[in-house]
Specification:
By secondary structure, the chain is of the alpha/beta class. The chain is built from 10 helices and 14 strands. The structure holds guanosine-5'-diphosphate (GDP), magnesium ion and zinc ion.
Amino acid sequence: MPLAQPDAALSEAEDDLALPGSEQIRRAHEDRLRSRRKLVRRRERQQKPLSAPVPTGSHTSARIIGTDGPYFLARLATGQEMRAKSYKGTHTSNPGGTLVAIGDDVQLAVQEDGTANIDTVLARRTKLARAAAGQRVAFEQVVVANVDLLVIVASATQPPLRAGIIDRYIVAGLDGGLSVAIAINKADLATEAQREEALYFRDVYREIGYSVAIVSAETKEGLPELRSIIEGKTSVFAGHSGVGKSSLLNAIVGREIGRTGVLSRKYRRGAHTTSSARLITIEGMPETYIVDTPGVREFANHELDPGNLKFAFEEFVKYQSECGITNCSHIHEPACAVRQAVEDDKISIDRFTSYQKLFEEAKKQEFKRITKA
Ligand SMILES: Nc1nc2c(ncn2[C@@H]2O[C@H](COP(=O)(O)OP(=O)(O)O)[C@@H](O)[C@H]2O)c(=O)[nH]1
Ligand SMILES: [Mg+2]
Ligand SMILES: [Zn+2]
């Protein structure tokens, strides 16, 4: 954003000063001049220039709010924004994962060119993480750090509504210390049967304790409900590519932020690297921030633990004490109260199926870890 230009009126006033005039007129001019200068200074402050006048060599804390080409974008406590990058001396309190993620709290050292080096990445309070695709060594890819709420976006139509992907995200969210909510989008396109299915899943997840809104980015149906779910929190929108995360974000924020549209497979890779995820503020909703995440075709959970997985299925927990075996996995043991609850329709078969699949995956991951060690 360009710096505020001094008012044309201000320059005129300065010219006037050169003219001879009575003492009174001169004073009046000076007063006007002073108040105009004040106004300009205030405007300049509001413009928050990118090359912040923070002295070179100084150290300051900031939050990573997005990316800008090869740089991260950092917001200082003063509200100023600055381009920042990591370097080989960057220290992190979060080993084994992404070095710098959106939402990270960092310590910056301001450089001569007005950009900053990221000296330290502070410990993450929460995170949404996934296994990095195509990486042989288990590496935790942190999508976003230090947010409160994971809004899992699903679609009532295309891509089809599946508990599997929702539950995958729930496990990742709970594991990272996030609260979870669900938005089922594209209600406007839903057939009668699809709408019924959306209502069924809404009830399943509501009963477990999650907020669920059935919405349409197109017709704005359900948006007030979604707004009230995210109000006062920092949220990350995540879900299958094409479900309408960016569209919903634009509808909520009321302005165009990210590009929307289904990308062809060919372009998807490029889109990931060039996408500029950002912590977005919403007008009229103080202390509310949203992060969009680029569409991910496959979301793989990082380091699933077969022993702990069952705790992420919160509705299973109350049956656990009735299982025949103390540390029942609910997979194969006899006299399992959780499986009985599924049979009695007290636990959704869709949720139990998700659990079985994730458990199997967790076992495979565990086997890999053991054989590698
Ligand atoms: N009819 C309808 N189309 C939608 C809705 N939300 C998103 N879309 C369309 O679905 C496609 C994917 O949306 P996008 O926001 O890019 O999905 P993202 O990959 O999750 O960010 C685009 O063509 C959108 O216009 C909706 O609520 N109704
Ligand atoms: Mg998108
Ligand atoms: Zn059991």
